[in-house]
Every structure is written in C-alpha cells, then in structure tokens.
Specification:
By secondary structure, the protein is mainly α. It has a domain of 60 residues. Helices cover 65% and strands 5% of the residues. It has a three-stranded antiparallel β-sheet. Strand 1 and strand 2 form a beta hairpin. Helix 5 runs antiparallel to helix 7 and helix 6 crosses helix 7. The chain is elongated, with a radius of gyration of 40 Å.
Length: 329
C-alpha cells in the first residue's frame, strides 16, 4: 500500500467570510477555469489597484523629466516613491485576486458580484436557511463533497467519481433552491386550511415531499461513498502503521548484542568494589557503612551478583601506584 496513485485536483468546497460570518460554499461545476481566471483578473484590476498604477506611472514620468533636466539627485526620492507605489500596486492586486472567493464582506451599497445571483458561481450552506430541515441536507452534502475530495482514498478510485459526486450534489442543490416558492406557498395555505385551493395546496405539499425524498436518497448514496472511502482509509492507515512498525522493529538491536552488553557490564561493579576496598585497606580509612549494617550489606549483595570478593589484583595494582609516587586518582 505504499505505491499510491497520483492525487487529483483540489476540493470544490471553500470556506469564505460573509457579512453574517464564515460559511462553507460549493463551487458551480459548470463554471470553467478560464472564467475563474477572468474573475481573478477583474478583482486584481480593482479601482484601488488602478489608482496605485496611475500614481506610479505619473511618478515615472516625473522622474524621467527630472533626469532629463540634469538633476539626477532630485529624481532619486521620486524614484523611491515610484518603487513603493509599484510594489503596493502589486500587493493590492495579488491580495484581491487570491481572495476573490475567500472574502465577501461587502457593504450593502457594494454588493459582491458573486452574490448577485444565487447559484451562479456557488451555493452557500446558509442559502437554504429558510427552507426548514433542508439546511441540514445542504450542509451534509457540501461536507460530503469536501470529504470525498480530501480523502486519502481518492487516488485509489476512478478520478471521475469525485467530479460526478460534485455534479450530482450541485444538481440536488439546484432542485432544492427551486422549491422556495412551493414551500412558501404550502406555508401560506397551511395557515388557511379552508381555502378554495386546498387541492392545489395538497399537490404542492406532495411535490415538495417527493423532492425532499429524492434529496434524502442523494444524501444516502453520498454517505455510502464516504463509508467506502473511510473503510479504505482505515486499511491504508493500518498498512502504513504495519510498514512503519516493521521498519522500527528491524532497527532495534538484536538479543545477542544486548546480552553481550549486559554480560560485559556484569563484572564492572565487582571490579570497582575490589579496587575501592583495596584502597580502603591501604589508606586505613575504616569500614564502609555496609560493613557495619547487615541490611546495607544485603543491599550491596543484590548490586554485586558475584559476591563481595576483594581479590589481590586491585591491591597489588594500587601498591604499585603508591610506590611509584603516582596519584591513584
């Protein structure tokens, strides 16, 4: 499971800022990429950007005229201001182009061109706020499209499937948006049950119910796709975890290597003990605490598996050092 196919394109779901707060939106699959590029260019050529550009051009002309008159030093400040204006122009244009779908916080006097016609460029999850329980349906569908496009299992399925899910969900949202008038009508007729158009009210309610049932079917099928991709994600995670575990276990030291280190360390405490007791005997420093208290002696025996053996080799080595005049330390 390590050789994964090449991933696809980005998700068509965005999170944007609106006057009523952040919200999720689903892009219209029928809007071609070239139109989005035009919209970004149009946003970059905002009046503020154009004004910065005109200001920079004016300063350029002024700097050229100043240099032509032979005053190069006088043109330097103008040239610096021109550079600053040009950089500011680029930054403003870049920010406007990159935030064309991210920021829709416009005042009532300046409506966003993307919000003028609902569904022309995208649908928001709050676009159906007044359609009863349909709001939950929209949020579920938009979240499902986003999850499917972001899923680690996406490279393993047909590249056309996420796009088809996107189109089906978009079609469902369009159908739901077209039920606004019918839902409003059924609400009005419900307030007047004795109306002469009772049969029409029943027909309107039935039509809305049929549409809602169909949308529930869409939600169920999209959820089925997500269940399958989640199961495959679990398989991928387990496979990755197994591969990493094998690599980590392979890097662990072998039992033989560890036992050799343990065996080499086993004799070290006894050797130190022999040298320490030999030094004590040579210097007449007196008994150690463990030689005075049985409990401490038993504790030392647990540290020294080989027992308390003083031996003659450490004593002989220390005597040689003392006779030669060297410091044992």
């Amino acid at each position: 499971m390590t050789d994964q196919p090449r991933p696809g394109t980005a998700t068509p779901v965005r999170t944007a800022l609106f006057p009523d707060g952040p919200d999720s939106l689903l892009l219209n699959p029928d809007v071609p990429e070239r139109r989005w590029r035009r919209e970004r260019v149009r946003a970059a050529l905002h009046p503020r950007t154009v004004l910065f550009g005109l200001g920079g051009a004016s300063l350029t002309v002024l700097a050229v005229l100043t240099v032509a008159k032979g005053s190069v030093l006088a043109a330097m400040p103008v040239l610096g201001i021109e550079i600053v204006a040009f950089v500011a122009c680029l930054l403003v244009g870049w920010r406007s182009a990159t935030g064309v779908l991210a920021d829709h916080r416009h005042g009532p006097a300046r409506p966003c061109r993307f919000d003028r016609v609902r569904g022309e460029f995208f649908f928001r999850s709050r676009d159906v706020a007044g359609l009863g329980t349909a709001g939950d349906t929209v949020r579920t569908l938009i979240a499902g499209v986003d999850e499917l496009h972001r899923s680690p299992a996406r490279p393993w399925i047909d590249p056309a499937v996420p796009g088809e899910v996107h189109r089906v969900v978009w079609q469902a949202l369009c159908c739901l948006d077209r039920t606004r008038a019918a839902r409003s009508l059924t609400g009005e007729l419900a307030d007047d049950p004795d109306s002469a158009v009772g049969e029409l009210a029943a027909a309107a309610r039935e039509a809305v119910t049929v549409i809602d049932d169909a949308l529930d079917e869409v939600v169920r099928h999209v959820h089925g796709c997500l269940v399958l991709t989640r199961e495959w994600e679990t398989k991928l995670r387990r496979g990755d975890l197994a591969a990493r575990t094998e690599g980590i276990l392979a890097a662990l030291p072998g039992e033989r290597e560890v036992r050799q280190a343990a065996q080499a360390a086993e004799a070290l405490p006894q050797s130190v003990f022999a040298f320490i007791t030999a030094a004590r005997d040579l210097t007449g420093a007196g008994e150690f605490p463990w030689e005075q208290h049985p409990c401490m002696r038993a504790r030392l025996l647990r540290v020294l598996p080989g027992g308390l053996r003083r031996g003659t080799a450490p004593r002989t080595a220390l005597l040689r050092l003392v006779r030669s005049g060297e410091d044992p330390s």
